[in-house]
Every structure is written in C-alpha cells, then in structure tokens.
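Lecture 7, part B: from sequences to assemblies.

Below are the input chains for today's worked example.
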Amino acid sequence: MTEELRVLVISHGHPSLSLGGGEIASHNLHKGLNALAGIKSVYLARVGSPTPRHAGTALMSLRQSASDILFHSDDFDHFYLSNRNTDDIRRDLVRFVRDINPHVVHFHHILGLGLEALYAIREALPDAAIVVTFHEFLSICHHHGQMVKIKSGQLCRRASPTDCHSCFPEIAPASFLKRERFVRSMLELADVYVSPSRFLAERYAAWGLSPDKLFVIENGLAIREPAPPRVLPGAEQRRSRFAFFGQMTPFKGVDVLIDAVARVPERIWGEDSRLMIFGANLEYQPPEFQARMKKLIDDAGSRVRFYGSYQNSEMPELMQTVDWVVVPSIWWENSPVVIQEALFHGRPLLCSNIGGMAEKVRNGQDGLHFRVGSPEDLADRFVEVLSNGHVWESLRGSMQRPLGHVDCAEQHLALYRAVLDRHSHADGGEVGQLERA
Amino acid sequence: MMYRGDEEPGTREPLPKEAGVTAKGAPRPSSRREGAVQPVVETAIACPINETLILILGSGVPMNGPQPLLLNGDPALPGKAPVVSWPLVDAKGRASHGFVALVFTGPLKGERLNAVTFRGQGRSVTYRLLPDLMRPAALAGALGDLAGPGMPAVVDAIIGMLSAGPMSRRKLAAMTAFVEAGAKADGFIEIIGAFEDGDVYLQGWSQEMSAGVSRVLIGGATPQIAECTAAAFDRQDLNNNGKGYAALLVAPEPIDPFGMQRVYVRSRDGWRYADVYEQRLLASPRDTPGYARAILPKLRGSAEVIGRLREAAYRYEGLDTVSALALPVRMAIDHALRIEQGGLLISGWLLDPDHRVEAIKLRRRQASVDLKPIWSRIDRPDVTRAFDGKAPFLSQLDPDRHSHGFVAFIPDFDPDGSAPIYIEFAIPHAPPAYLPVVPKRVSYREAVTRQLKSISARATSVSELVERHLIPLVASAATKPAGVEGVEHVGTLVSGGADTTLVIGLDDQTTDITTLVALLALDPQIRVAPIILAGPEQAIGELRGEIRRLAEFYGLSIDLVAVSAFSDVFDALIVGANVAKTDRVVLFSAALVPAERGWLGRLRSAHQEHDASVIISPALIYEDDSIRWAGYRLSGEEDGLAENYVGYPAATLDSIAPSATPAANLECCILSKASIVALGQDGHGYLGNREKGLDLALRLARAGLKAWWLPGVRVLGAEAPQDGINAWEVHARSVDRAVFTARWAETIHAMVHSEAA
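Predicted structure of the full complex, as structure tokens:
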C-alpha cells in the first residue's frame, strides 16, 4: 500500500475521562499505530451524561488532541446493547466516518455506542476492514458481561436463554433469545474479532462466533520505564508489601483479599507487611457493598490501607512502593491491564486460578495462583511468600515481558492487512461476502 | 239495506254518488221470490283493517256465527267469515237485518276484493263492494245509529272477531276505534308504576270498577290488550261515589307506561274508559313496589287477586334485601362478567345451611334462570369461618361442609346491557328477597382467566367447573371480526417488482420491535421486500415512532396496520395480509425470531415450485435447540392429529425431507394472498394461540390448500412467558382442547379415514 493506512479506533470511553482497562488498551493501540510509519489513527470515544453535549451535533472535542474526538451518546439500551438514537448515528457518526474514510474501523466496545454504530459504518464503508475487540463477555452475558451467576455468585460456563433467565427471572427466555440473535447477527457484520486472551476467545467461539474470525492479540502497554524494586528500609528485609489496583466492584474480590489478610497469623504478618488498596469508583457501587467494604477495611485495622482512586499515569510511582500485586477477581477476567503492568514493572502476582488471570500469570513463573474466592488459600499464599524470601526473587527472574504498545500495534497491523488483502481479492464486494458458514 | 247518498243523513264519510247502481250499467235487480237460486247482487261497504282483513257492512237476512262465502265469486276461493247481525232500526225492503262480517282476503294474494258471495240456506247473495272505503272510526260511528240499543253487543262481537288470530297494531287501532265509539268515561288513573319485566301497576278511582281479572284495552301511543287484575279500596275523598282501585296489567309485549293515555274496560253495561290523569305520577321500577305495598292492607278482593297484587308489591326495587334477612341465609357475588355476546359468568357464594331458600333465580326483565340446577359448587372454607357463630347463623356451621361457592355461565343472558340484573330468592311463606347483580363487561378470555385465577387450581371442583361452564363459554364466544383501523407507511418506498410481502403480526404482549427489525434488515432478501407490520391499535400507536426511526435507519419499507377488534396475533396476520399488494404473502408472528438468513427466500422458492394453492411452513425450534413445531401427521390414536418430533433435538431434522402435513403452522408460513383473504374470520373463540392457529390451518386445509413443511428452514420461537406450566394454564389448555375437539373431531376423523383409504 502506497497510501497511508487510515485507522479509526472506537472506544466506549476516553481514558482521560473514565478509568478502565478497555479504554487504556484501546488508546494504547491508537498511540502505537500512530508511532508506526505510514499509519494514521484517529480515536473516537463515547461520552455521556453528565457531560453536556452540543445541541446540533453529537460530536465534540473537550480539548483533546487533534486525533481524538468524542461522540456523545446517552440513549443506550443495556440489555440489547442497542443505541436508540439512530439519528445521531446517521447524521454525525456516519458523516464523520465518511469524511475520514478509514481503511480500518476497530471497535473496542459496543457499550454506549450501540450495535447500530457497527451496522451504520458497515453500510457506509462496505470495503473497510471492521475489527471488534472483546474486553469482557458483554455480548454474551447480561450480568455486566462477567459470566458469574447472580444468585449464587458461582462462575458461569455457558450462556443459554434458559440459563440466563434463571439469573434474571424477570426477563423471559424469549428476550434472551432475541438478545443473542440480535447481538450475534450484528457482530457478524465485522470481518475479524480480537481477544487479548485465549480464554475469552474460546468462550466467544463456543458462543457461536466463527473460530476462523477470532484472533488473540495481547493488549499493549505504553509505559516508558519499569519502576525499580522497592527500596527496603533498613532492618526490614522481606518483600512484604502487597497491593491491589483497580475498580472496587464486587467482582474484583477485594473482600476475599482483605479476609485473607486477616487470616494470616500475626507472627507471620509481622510489623512490616501491609496490604495497600488502590481502588477506584467505590462510590459508584451499591450502597450495601460500599458499607461492607468500609467495614472490612476498618476491621482489618493496621494491616490494610485504603488509598482511594488513582490516575493510570501514577502507576509507575505507585509500583515503587509495592512488592506484590494481587488480582483476586472472582470473575474470569480477560487480560487485566494491572497484570500487564505488574509484569512490566517486575512485580510478581498473586491471582485467582481462573480465566484470563490464570492464562496471563503462569503459575510459579509470573506469580502464584490461589483458588478463586478462597480467603484461606490466598492466606496460605501469603504465608508461603512471607516465610520464604527467595520466592519473590525467583519469580521476578522468570516473569515474562509484556507487549509494548507499538509491538501490539504492529501485530494488529498485520491483521488489518490480511483482512484488506482478502477484501481486494474477493469478487464483487457484497455485504456478507466474507462470512464463513 | 243499501246506502244511498240521498237517504242517509249523518254519516261521517262521503258515500258514492251513484247509489243504487250495481253492475255497470245494469239496472237494479228486483228481488224475486222464485224457488230457483238466483244470484242476487247487493252492495256493501268495506272497512279495511289491515292487508288481509276487511270488515264488511251490509244488510240482508239475519246471519250469525261463521258463514261460508266466496271471494270475488270465485268457487276456487271459498272461505268462512264470522258475522254478527242485528235487526235494523229502520228496515226497508228485503233487508231486515244489518250485518258486519270479517273477511280474510289472504287467498286473493294481493288482488283487490270486489265482492263477497254468501252461500247458505239455499241462497246465494253477492255483495259488491263499493269503491269508497270506510275507516273503522267511521264505521263505529255509523253503527251507533244503525244498531241502536244493540250496539254494545255488536261492538263486543266485532271486538271478539278482531281478537281472534295474531294481534297487530292496526287490529288494535281498529278495536280501539270500535270500543271508543260507545265508551263512557269513568274515573281516572292517578299512578302508573312501571316494572322491569314490562308489567304495569295502576292506581286510580272509578265508579263502576269491577274487581277481579278481566281483559282491558290500553289506548295511547301503543294500543295493547292486557290482562288486568284489579282490587278495590275505599277512598274518603270520593264520597261513596266510586272506589279506589289498584290493578296489575300484564301483556305479552312490555306495556309502555309513558304512552298510556286511557284504559278501556268492559263493564256490565258496555265499555268504559279511565283517562290517565294529567298530573299522574309515573313511578320507576325502583319505586313501584313501594306504592303497591302501601295500599296492600286496604285492598279487598279474591285471594287470587290479592295474591297477584301482593306479588307486585314485593318485586325488585334495586336493593339488596338478602343481607338484612332475619333468616340464616346470606349471599354475595364475587364477580359477574358479561362477555361479548351477552353471556354472563357469575360467581359468588351462598350460605344457606338450613335450606331455607326454595329457588334462586337470576332475573332480567322477563327472563328468569333457575340457578340451582345449573351452577357448580366450590369449596369456600373462608365463608364458613367468617360466619361461624355469627348472626344470623347463631348455631355453629358444620365444619366439614364448605361447598358454599358457586359458578354458573348463562349464555345470551344480557344481550345489550340495558336492564338491571338481579337474583331473586324464593322463600316459602315469605316475600322474595333480592340481590342486585352488576356485571362488568369483559372479553371472554378475561372472564375465563379471572374465573380460573380466583379459585385454587387444585380444587377438585375445577374440572367440573371447566366442563360445565368454561367450555360452553368459550365454545359460544364469538367476537367481532377484526378489521383495518388505519394504514401508515414508514421508511423507504419499495420500487415494485416484488412478488412476496412479509406480514408480521404483533400482539398485545409485543413491547419492543428493535431486534426483530434489525434482524430483518440484516437479511439482504428481506431488506428489499415490502413489509407489513400489523397489530392492535394500542401497540401500533406506542411503537410507531420507534418503527419509523428503525425503518428510516435500516432503509426498510414498512406499512403499519392498526387492527380494530383485535383478539390475537392471527387477527393481525390475516388483516395485515389483506393489505398486501403482492400475490404472495409470508406470515410471521413477531414472537418468533429468524434463525438464519435466507429463510424467506427458501420459503419463496419452495412455494414457487408448487402452484398457488399450497401453504408451506418452516420448522420452528425452541430457544434451547429442541423442536417446537415440525408438522403433523394423521394418526389413528390421539384425536387423529399428532405433532411430529416436538421436544426432540433440532438435529433430528437433519435427516428428514420436506413432507406434506395435514395442516401448516399459521405463525410462520407462505401462501397466496388470495387464500388467506378467502379465509375471512368468523371469530371462533379460543383462549390461547395453539388451538386457534390449528383451527385456522385446518380451515385452510378444508378450503383445499395443501400444506407442506420444510425441515431444512428453521425459525426460532421461545416459550412465551404465559406458556409456562402453571395450574391455571393447564386448565385453559384443556378448555381450548375441548372446544377445538368439539369443532373439529369429525373433520379430522374423516381426514384420517380418507388418508387410510
């Protein structure tokens, strides 16, 4: 290709406005693409209330860089992942997309923008390569895309209208059937799908997406320098500082973590150990959960410190004060950015033994696993690593390097080119031509 | 006696000027006294009563009783006419008597009656009818002069003649004219009390009133003959110059209390009439019994008469008198539901442990239905508990007997909701007690739903109740045919050239249409097809904004059809199909979900391979990949029509070829527009969609449409929320099954046998 390859990356939120792994990953991709020669990437993120919008257009800027643009969207049906404001899509989104005329449109989320955006862009750009990256199971699971059963908290292995109805008795199986058909049929308009973890990709294949269209590309990190190990003050020689980074949602297992800390015997925990919780968005959680968290933290006394939310740019600094990173999620997880960051900064991990976590953290090499949801098992891990100082060193030596954002962009680029090549070799170019039976 | 214009003063009608001329130009025959029968022609005057009855006034020899005669001298038209005659006051010539005869002209079949010939007693006399006719009032007036003191008897005889046979307004008008002519005024009617069933209660006074039972003639806007039961009472204000009376008038047709102006009574010396007093009091059915009760103690008369008037005094006044009874009897109505055709479903409880009530009747105007033989009882332990030991059931109620509840369905009871409905309790040796019933208008489906939901579905009496009341209710239910309320186009315009329209039926459960429209748009064949979306007015009204937005976004051509008198999705599909402009239609219930692209094209190809008299349905699959519908087969067992493979894994269909089926599935099918339009709707009632759909499919089969199903084309249909197994659902299904079987068992049986042959 002699001309510049134009890419439009679409996300459900801008990382400077909303915290979340998907936003960071998508923005890192965008930056990575722009660092490559011959590529021009534009980043479009959804924004919604309480941010006010322009009256005459859904597009806005909020003084972001010239390659970032925002699309205001509020009329979103969370059940069907559908945007009721199709007028804005037709008038503003499609116009914008036609103007920049990208070769590739890469959706990093449908949330907030709606599947209709995918439809409209496919209609407007029949020859473009459309890629969809999945960051969780939202297309499959109405329970926040977590695939965790509501009543029992048990992990869910497979969705079906009847099973989903058991989690949501007020929603009929017929509605879940419609959701499944609608979401999948719309997604099938895309050319390929990307998942940061094999685990997630396999779930989507089981759900019905064509395995030929599913690709695994890790999220890329855009950090310059790894943080040096924590400076051990004087007499203290143990690597005894544990940290949790992330959103304080019920799925992140923070309560399991605090419970585990409380179970470690005093003589093992000692004076130097500490759990630091860098947790965001606690105030958006259900009131009972907020109350419970506060109580747990209080009861844990001096063992636990709660530092509230943080900016992603602070991470290198925060990592300096940390020896271990704990990822105690009780849901499957896909590829939590905190794992990539811990790998980058050489902070061994303690994580639940399921899903994307177990995939990204090789047990005994990148960190140690514990049984999901089990404070006793996590407590055992604490005892193990606090009692054996060499574990930390050993793990640090065997931890893998995560993917940088530019390398990640290159991997994506290869995928884009493969898709575009296939398009140009196909006859005609009708919609639906590329679907595999 | 013959009338001559110059001879008779005082007649009220103009008489023919050519008096004395009989046959055209022929001289007046003289009377002859020969032995041979000579035709004698006289003239007579005709007074038509109605199209087939004429009174004839003439003179001749005495005749009484029925006389044989010929119409227009035609021996093929003999008849008999009642005749009354009287000695002439002023006899002239041969004629000694005047007569009036009532001639029936039916056999003439509309031809004019010109002459009657009386034959008998060795003579034959023909009376030619003068062309100018006389009206009854005129005749009545003339009679007064002609008959003199014999007038009352003549009038009586004429009334008697006219009373025979079917009564009509004109007959009554004529009778009134005759009665009126000689009647004398006597007293007034002061109170007219209406009753719901059309009887009327009167109170007034007269001098010559006769107590007892007699027939009276009501004059006014609506003349009527009524049976009158009257009793007398003393009134101080009359100074012994008359008596007060209370009377009950009963007639075959309801009596009009407003139009009543006077009442004619035959007394000893002729007819008398009482006028309705100008300041009369007109009482409504609520108030009339009160008046009758007030005067009851003063009345004098025979036991039968007093009994009838007492019965009138204790009629329904719109009040609940059961709840205040001193007797240990109580009743309450839980619901009274009036369905479309006027059938009534009534449910409540009756507590009557001592069996004090002889009969319990549901009443409306003159209709009366005895409930005890027809109702079904239901256990109501709550009623036992509520009244145990409480007044008026002071002794303990039997703790093991709870069957106080009742349910009954009475078809066609209240055709138009225009009269009060109540329950009448017949209690021996006591006046009746009453309980008002206020029905609610509901659809037949709602009535069944409410009834089933109001009782514990596991109660043992449910099956009986279903069989005796709910099945007949649904079987007799018929609704108005659905129709087009309005059509509106949204989205793009289809450029023409399409030969198949997709007709989608919504129902009142449809709340969102977004995903369905999107899935249609994602299918390239459907994207360019004309689409009709039909549904109940309310749903279309709520969804039209959304549908318009989606049609514009996806570039679809959609006609929105609002359906009036909507009952179920099939109404929407049939009405929608009527609006289609193509020869072929695909029907699709909005509760279904397309499973794969190209399904419509494949149905279309299959339909094109056959001729237009074919209906084809795809297989329907449940949301869990098991089979929901895969055609039927005729079989010797199981009511004759068995479903194929329902519940089996969808993969079962992989090895099955397209096959014929006795009936298709109307929820999703392709057929010619003409076929579905010819189906019409006669509004067969069912509770649910299953049997309704099958009913329609069988009607199409009966009309000659061959049905096929395609295992390779699949459409999804999840279990609808109300299809879930809950107890009342089970009963609703059994109702539909029973109603369906009653309607179709024979046809299916014949289908099984003709296939076996």
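Note for the exam: Chain B has 16 helices and 36 strands. Keep this in mind when comparing with the next example.
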